[in-house]
Design a protein that fits this description.
With 185 residues, the protein is an alpha/beta fold. The chain has six helices and ten strands.
Length: 185
């Protein structure tokens, strides 16, 4: 019990330290009350919308505040594919780090994709695509691995227990390149 409380307290302090203003307190309140509410929050100088009491805030903190992808060094890339873009925070990071690149933010799950579109709407170099990358062009069902909003997957077979009921267009990398006029990635 003490370990669980200690872990939760550490997470709350992380939220307060790495988010600006009142929104961090609301995220904590929502978590304590078990509410999932879409809220705007400022993380690392970026305004994004997250769902409280989900992995969204941790994803945003990792991408935008802790800059988990900053170790990637590319010299003036023209195209970046963010496959499994979730709510768009890694795409935002890449869009600001490489303003000359087009970022293709590919996300299959409907709720994540809606937030991705909201979060990336002010970035002209981010192209949101609701699809999944797969070995062939086809339609698949999205599965929920019960690890939160970042744990969706597409699989060859459907498990009724894990099915989200959402079907998604799956595309090969070649199909995406042809559809969007991408010469190289």
């Amino acid at each position: 019990m003490i370990r669980k409380i200690s872990k939760k307290l550490k997470r709350f302090l992380r939220y307060l330290k790495k988010s600006d203003g009142y929104a961090g307190y609301l995220c904590i309140l929502d978590e304590v009350l078990g509410r999932e509410i879409a809220r705007p929050i400022n993380i690392g100088g970026y305004q994004v919308k997250i769902r409280t009491n989900t992995p969204d805030l941790n994803v945003a903190i990792s991408s935008l505040y802790e800059r988990e992808y900053d170790h990637i060094r590319l010299s003036a890339p023209k195209t970046i594919v963010d496959a499994g873009a979730n709510i768009g925070t890694s795409s935002i990071f890449f869009a600001t780090k490489y303003p000359g690149a087009r970022i293709f933010a590919i996300e299959p799950e409907a709720g994540n994709f809606e937030l991705l579109k909201i979060n990336t709407q002010n970035y002209r170099n981010i192209i949101p695509i609701r699809a999944a990358i797969w070995g062939k062009d086809c339609i698949r069902t999205i599965q929920n691995r019960f690890t939160g909003h970042w744990g969706y997957t597409v699989s060859e077979t459907t498990n009724r227990i894990e099915s989200t009921g959402q079907e998604i267009t799956c595309m090969t990398v070649d199909s995406i390149m042809k559809a969007y006029g991408i010469e190289s990635i």
